[in-house]
Each structure stands twice: as C-alpha cells, then as structure tokens.
From TrEMBL:
Gene Ontology terms for molecular function: hydrolase activity; translation elongation factor activity
PANTHER family assigned: TRANSLATION FACTOR GUF1 HOMOLOG, CHLOROPLASTIC, TRANSLATION FACTOR GUF1-RELATED
Positions that bind GTP: 16-21, 133-136
Chain's gene name: lepA
Protein name: Elongation factor 4
Species in which this protein is naturally found: Fructobacillus papyrifericola
Localization per record: Cell membrane
Length: 597
C-alpha cells in the first residue's frame, strides 16, 4: 500500500482512562475482530494485565478502514501502558509512530501520566489528537476537562477535541475520520536500502525470537537474508507479517508499515530493542536514530525455590520483550544461586514476579529492592559500582560512598505546592527551582534515587489527588553519609537482608526492621535473637519467641536438676544452630519493603 494511505499512531493517557477499551472499539468498528471473537481488553493478553486491569506491554494491531472519501486506509495502532513504571514501553511505542491520540477521562481530567506522556510525545514533535473519553458517564465534566487540556497545551485550541465513549462507541466513528485527516502519513522511501527499527520482541518456544518492527525505508521480503546492525547477526526470516491482532502472514513489508519478523533465532542475546534491521547485503549504513535505551532504577535479588536453570531460562525470555530488565548472576549464602535483576520501579518488579509464576510456573524469593552505589576504598584509586548491599566492602576500608542523584521535575496545581514541598524534603530532597506555569507550578528538586524509587510517586499522587506528574533526569553520583545495615538471625549474618541507608535514618530503621522480622521469621523451639548492626555495632535487637516456654522462666515447680538438664539441652541446640539453617519465606523480605512506606 502507498505510504499516503498509512497511519501509524499510539494511544497515550493516564492509567485507567480507557485506552484498552478504545482500542477494542476501534477494532470492532473496523471489522478487525468479529463480534464472536470480541472480548474486553483484547490487547491485554498477559494474565497480569487482566488481573491488575492495567496495560503492561505495548501491543500492535493493524486496522483496515474505509474512509468517507471512499479510500481504504491502513491504520497501525499501538496500545500503550499508563503506569509510571512502564513509561519505557510508551517511549518504545512512540519511536514507531507518527502521531498520537491524547486520551483524557471526562470524570477524572488531566492527571499525572497524562502530563508525562504528553511531554514524551511533545518532545518528539508528534502531532496529537485530543480525545475526551467517558462522556456518557453521569460524573462527566467535559467543560472542566476541556479547560485542563487548554492549560496543558494551548496549541490544542486550534484542533478538534473529540468527545467519545469507548464503552458504547459514541463518537468513535468521527474519531476514525479524524485519524485519517489529521495525522500525517509516514515519511520514507521504498526504493532505499532496507532500514527498520526493532521496537519490541517476544519469544516463542517453536519459532524462536519474534521481533516487532517499523520499516523506515526500503522493503522487507520474506526470502531475503537480514542482519541486526548492533549484534551483526544475520539470519533468514521464517515468516513476515502483521498483527490483526493475531499474527497474519504476508509476503512483504514496505516503508511506513509496522509488522513482525519471525527470526528463528533461539538465542535472545542476538536481539536488542532499539536495534536497526537491514539487509545482509547492500544494507543501510546508518542506524535508526532517536531511540534511547532505558536504564534500570532499582535492583533486587531473585532466587528460585526449586529449579535454578528454569528460572534462568524464564528470565532470559522475559528480558527479550522487556528490554528494561538487566540480569546478572549472583549467589547468596542464605538463598543459594540466583540473579540480581534491574527494574524500572517496584510495580515493575511485582509484575515480573507474577509473570514468572503465571507464565512459567516458577515460585521465587525476591529480596528488597535497592539502587547502585559508587564506593571508593581507602587504598584503591578507582571507585567500584555496587548493586548488591551484601557486596559492600567492610566499613573500615571505605573512604566514601556516592549515591545516584536525579533531578525531579514535579508539575502540580498551586493548591498542593506546600504539601509537595514537604514531601520532597521528607525524602531528603534539595530545592532547585520553582516556575509558575499555566495550570500550576513546576518544582525542581535534587533527590536521592534510593529515596524515591519505592513509593515517592504513589505518595505524590495521593497528596495531589492524582494531579501531579513526576519526571526524573539522572544527574550523576553525589557523596553522602551512607551506611550498610547488616542483619543477623540467631547470630548468623543474612546477606540477603542487608540494606543501605543514610546514617541519620539508621537508628529508626534498624528498630523498625528487627520488630518487623520478629513477626515474620519462622519460630524454633528456643528464642532466636534478631540483630541489626551498623559498622559492627548492634543498634537494635529483639528475640523471636520460641514455640514453647523457656525452662528458665516457665514458673513451674520442678526439681532443680531436671531444670538444669533442660537448660543444658536448649543451650546445645542454640550453639548447634548458630548458623542459618532456617528457610526464609517471602514475608521476611516483604518486611524490608514496609520500611519505605
């Protein structure tokens, strides 16, 4: 099909504003899916997406639409996530599109991720069609939402703002016409050498790696030999096609089209998200520009309960279509062999844990998340990067510790300014700037990444009722007075429970952690001490109560000799158990997460 009859677009919005439902209506009205096959949130195919009611993975579907001018158009729709932890999925989608639908809930208005996703699209220079959804609701306030959109972007004043109900289909036919008329066609040249952006991928046990691509220039034929530019890996594609919404085989993909390539490769390491796909011979010389890989924000240890090799295979397959993950092997004295995995946030971590259970049947132990640190030692010239607190050098060898700092840009209505500033200062933020803007103010704070990686965004949404947005930009590392907290259970160090915190918070946090662990560590027949140490000194201690009373304090009248004999036996048990031989359940590690709430 000629490029002028192709439209590539994404739907962006805040979480739960109706993206997936609107996608359903677009597929239904264009006849892409029959009424018999239609189901709610059809593009949310992962079980975790259906369980949480949120989109986690971007999905592509090709719509065939006959416009009022009598011309057939090919609309390539990419459904995107709305949760802040999956903003990377949005950025991947936008790299493959030529325009977006900016969707806003008529009952909720412009909210945090509305602003953040608008900014992503605005910075890329993508044309936007504003859409107000759920206008059929009794709580809808279209006039207020209209004013909020104008305050967000005054250029929308010159555009048509479509009012739709994705649930009933009201206004969606008019929106389809607007997509054809107002969004641009892709700009490319089918006569140039093949250049295609790999913006996503997945793994199939029989077909191998399946890449999702946007063809920028040239033509991709099923019979030609292809090459990934970054890894220099050549292959003969097994199949080429498009999503409607299932994979549909075609013979060719031309410039401007979005589709998939079944590579047949069984090793995920050869496929990198953001790579450029070209012909093995006479291919393009320059890679596709404008796509940036996302770096992990938090790290956590993932350890198998049973099969290490199955966990390794599952993580590598998930990494293939979730390129924000970074995976490295590690070993814990308490939990055995496992992996240190990087995530975009705590919700991202939760989703991966649930995918391991639902898609691969693997139960895992997940340690508390942490960030990476730069540690400079006394007798070493160069600093080392530490992503696992258990690998921190001994405190007497440390000269200084640097933690990652980000510039947090918070857009909030003026009514919440005082509450937001107090929140930022509570998380060790340093004020940088304040600018008045339409609809509110923009605050800039220097924030330690370790402080905001857990629940800062949730707290921000709570105090601003969802109206504030957060953008972070890495500044670098900055020296700080940080200490490592070691945790001992029955006098045995548990490396998986170690964490790093600021010295000013150490006393309060250690008291809290030992009391949390007291309630979650499995009991024995004798009391077990739980201690938190900083620089070799015990700052907090509690005893995990025994399953039965201690003979020394049972208050019963017994012969002294029998009581002494019982005490001696208990003492022997304690000494023989001075190494960690208990199994730590997931609840133990969840106790550390509660420290940041």
């Amino acid at each position: 099909m000629q490029e002028k009859y192709i439209r590539n677009f994404a739907i962006i919005s805040h979480i739960d504003h109706g993206k997936s439902t609107l996608s359903d209506r677009l597929m239904e009205l264009t006849g892409t899916v029959s009424k018999r096959e239609m189901a709610p949130q059809l593009l949310d195919s992962l079980s975790v997406e259906q369980a949480h009611g949120v989109t986690v993975k971007s999905r592509t579907v090709q719509l065939q639409y006959r416009a009022k001018d009598g011309q057939n158009y090919r609309l390539n729709l990419i459904d995107t996530p709305g949760h802040v932890d999956f903003a990377y999925e949005v950025s991947k989608s936008l790299a493959a599109t030529d325009g977006v639908l900016l969707l806003v809930d008529a009952t909720q208005g412009v909210q945090a991720q509305t602003v953040a996703n608008w900014r992503l699209a605005h910075d890329l220079g993508l044309p936007m069609i504003p859409v107000i959804n759920k206008v059929d609701s009794a709580q809808a306030d279209v006039d207020r939402v209209y004013d909020e959109l104008m305050a967000l972007d005054s250029t929308l004043l010159s555009k048509t703002i479509y009012q739709v109900s994705a649930k009933t289909g009201q206004g969606v036919p008019e929106l389809l016409e607007g997509i054809v008329k107002e969004l641009p066609s892709p700009k490319g040249d089918s006569n140039r050498p093949l250049k295609a952006l790999v913006y996503d991928s997945e793994y199939d046990a029989y077909l191998g790696v399946i890449t999702q691509i946007r063809v920028v220039d040239g033509q991709l034929n099923a019979g030609q030999t292809l090459r990934f530019m970054a890894t220099n890996k050549s292959f003969q594609p097994k199949e080429v096609g498009v999503y409607r919404p299932d994979r549909t085989k075609t013979n060719q993909l031309s410039a401007g089209e979005v589709g998939y390539v079944v590579t047949g490769l069984k090793e995920p390491k050869f496929v990198k998200i953001g790579d450029t796909l070209t012909s093995a011979s006479k291919g393009c010389q320059e890679a596709v520009s404008g796509f940036q890989e996302r770096q992990p924000v938090v790290y956590a240890g993932i350890f198998p309960k049973d099969d290490y090799l199955s966990l390794k295979e599952a993580l590598l397959k998930i990494e293939l279509n979730d390129s924000a993950l970074t995976i490295a092997e590690e070993h814990s004295a308490a939990l055995g062999p496992g992996f240190r995995v990087g995530f975009l946030g705590v919700f991202h971590l939760q989703i991966i844990q649930e995918r391991l259970a639902s898609e691969y049947g693997i139960e895992v132990i997940v340690t508390a998340p942490n960030v990476s640190y730069q540690v400079r030692q006394v007798q070493e010239k160069e600093a080392i990067t530490v992503t696992n607190p258990a690998e921190f050098p001994s405190f007497e060898k440390i000269e200084s510790v640097e933690e990652p700092i980000v510039l947090g840009i918070i857009d909030t209505p003026g009514d919440y300014l005082d509450a937001v500033m107090k929140l930022a200062e509570r998380y060790r933020g340093t004020f940088a700037d304040l600018v008045d803007q339409a609809g509110g103010v923009r605050l800039s704070y220097r924030l330690p990444l370790a402080e905001i990686a857990y629940d800062f965004f949730n707290q921000l949404k709570s105090i601003t009722h969802g109206y504030a947005s957060l953008q972070t930009k890495a500044i670098g590392f900055e020296e700080s007075d940080l200490v490592k907290v070691d945790v001992q259970v029955n006098y045995a160090k548990v490396d998986a429970l170690a964490f790093v915190t600021h010295r000013s918070k150490a006393a309060a946090l250690t008291q809290k952690v030992v009391h949390e662990l007291k309630m979650t560590i499995p009991r024995r027949l004798y009391p077990m001490p739980v201690q938190a140490l900083v620089e070799g000194k015990v700052l907090a201690r509690v005893d995990v109560p025994p399953l039965r009373k201690n003979a020394a304090v049972n208050g019963e009248q017994r012969s002294v000799s029998k009581k002494q004999a019982l005490l001696r036996r208990q003492n022997v048990n304690k000494r023989s158990a001075a190494h960690l031989d208990i199994v730590l359940p997931q609840e133990v590690f969840n106790a550390l997460l509660s420290l940041n709430e």
